[in-house]
Write a structure and sequence with these properties.
- 38% of the residues lie in helices and 12% in strands.
- By secondary structure, the chain is an alpha/beta fold.
- It has a single domain, classed as 3-Layer(aba) Sandwich (Rossmann fold), CATH 3.40.50.
- A five-stranded parallel sheet has the order 3-2-1-4-5.
- Strand 4, helix 6 and strand 5 form a beta-alpha-beta unit.
């Protein structure tokens, strides 16, 4: 029998998810096994899911609608959706980039164990939140 492990409740920013989905043999590809085997439970909201869909449709990725749906099917069934109605009305840390605020709001609403991002605007909030903010590499190091 394998060792017991605690599931980590996490918010992954869009670039982190896209890298894991589209480049499975890349440095972030290992994230997929974390959500598929239940070691990490990503939280999503309507705003973060809509952004993921929008980014996957960027011409630079050249994905067909079917390929976008396939990518989403490799991620969304493993997530937990949070209602983020209080977003923007609370007094928690504010991100310089308004587009990134949805991830910070979701992390607060979902009372996550960690927010994972490579975005400087989010990383700069690390000392101002009630939860850790880690780079993808730092997060993956938890699972060595």
């Amino acid at each position: 029998m394998g060792a017991e492990f605690a599931e980590v409740k996490v918010v992954l920013d869009t670039n982190t998810v896209v890298s894991a989905l589209l480049f499975p043999s890349g440095r972030l590809g290992r994230l997929r096994s974390l959500w598929t085997d239940g070691r990490a439970r990503p939280l999503v909201s309507t705003a973060t899911t809509n952004e993921l869909i929008r980014v996957l449709a960027y011409p630079k990725f050249g994905l067909s609608e079917e390929e976008i749906q396939f990518a989403l099917a490799a991620y969304l069934p493993f997530t937990e959706t949070m209602d983020n109605r209080s977003a923007g009305r609370s007094r928690h840390a504010r991100c310089r980039d308004a587009d990134d605020q949805a991830f910070v709001d979701l992390a607060y609403s979902g009372e996550v164990d960690v927010l994972v991002s490579g975005d400087k605007d989010i990383l700069d909030l690390a000392e101002k939140t009630s939860f850790p903010i880690e780079t993808p590499r730092e997060f993956l190091d938890r699972f060595r």
